[in-house]
Every structure is written in structure tokens, then in C-alpha cells.
Amino acid sequence: MRRINGVGLAAPQIGKSIQLAVIEIDKTKTRPSVKPLKPTVIINPKILSHSKEVNYDWEGCLSFDGARGLVPRYNKVEVSYFDENFKKIVAQFTGFQARVFQHEIDHLNGLVYPERMTNMKDLITLEEFKKRILKKGLKSK
């Protein structure tokens, strides 16, 4: 995950049928304004509530190396989960952090981001993404 600047990894992605994911968010050249999040283990996570507002933004996934898709996600979520010490946590996340939590929780529920996309024409290769999106600074709808 860290080697390729990923921000999350769910147990099912490595063949483990358990409700556990790890999330770690750092600022990067392509994500200079995100709010960082130290390594966070989430066990049995549940989205308790979410905003009505949805934001479309580009996502990648370690399970779909070399592709990017424009995915709608809630702007704000309240999540309950257990940490690595089995302490129950209830927290709210906004922006990119909310997006990552939703993405990883989807993995734990057997969903991958293309299933959330509203237009499959917005599923492109990483090379196309770099040419068309990153260079132009395009982001959300």
C-alpha cells in the first residue's frame, strides 16, 4: 500500500475474509491539500450516518492497478468501528477521508468502486488519467 502511495487496504484484497481494513493518508504531489490520517485500523466498521451532499472525484484501487474512475461519495460520514485494541470508536470524516472510509468499507461489503460509478465512460486507464485529468487539473463534477 505505501510503496505505491495507496491510502487503504482491506483484508479481502489480500484473501482474508475478515472485516478489517487499514487506512493511512498522507499529503502527496497529487493530493497536496488532503487532511492526513495516521495509520488507522478499522474492524467491523459501519457507516452510521452520512450527508445528503455527494461529491464526484477520481478513485484508484490496489485491486484495479492501472485504472481510475469517477465515483460519487458522500461528503461526510459518521463511522463506528473497533481499533486494533478492540476499543470502539465513533468518528466523523469529511472530504477525502470520508471517501477513503467509504471505499474501504465497500471492500469489506464485497463492492468495488466501478460498481458505484454512474457512467462507465469515466473508467479510464492510469495513463489516460495522467494525460487528461492530472495535467488539466480537472476534479469533480
What does this structure look like?
This protein has 141 residues and is an alpha+beta fold. The protein has a single domain, classed as Alpha-Beta Complex (Peptide Deformylase), CATH 3.90.45. It has helices spanning 95-108, 126-134; strands at 8-10, 20-25, 37-50, 54-59, 67-74, 76-82, 88-94, 123-125. Strands 1-2-3-6-7 form a 5-stranded antiparallel sheet, covered by helices on one side. It starts with 7 loop residues before the first strand and ends in a 7-residue tail after the last helix. The mean pLDDT is 93.
- On the 0 to 100 scale, the average pLDDT is 93
What is the percent of helical residues?
Answer: 10-25%
- Provide the CATH superfamily: Peptide deformylase
> What is the first-to-last residue Cα distance?
28 Å
How many beta strands in the DSSP annotation?
Answer: 8
Number of helices: 2
Number of domains: 1
**Oligomeric state of the chains in view:** single chain
Q: Approximately how much beta-strand content do the residues carry?
A: 35-45%
Strand order of the largest sheet: 1-2-3-6-7
Could you tell me the CATH topology label: Peptide Deformylase
**Main sheet record:** 5 strands, antiparallel
Core attributes:
2 helices, single chain, 5-stranded antiparallel sheet, 8 strands, 141 residues, Peptide Deformylase, 3-stranded antiparallel sheet, globular, alpha+beta
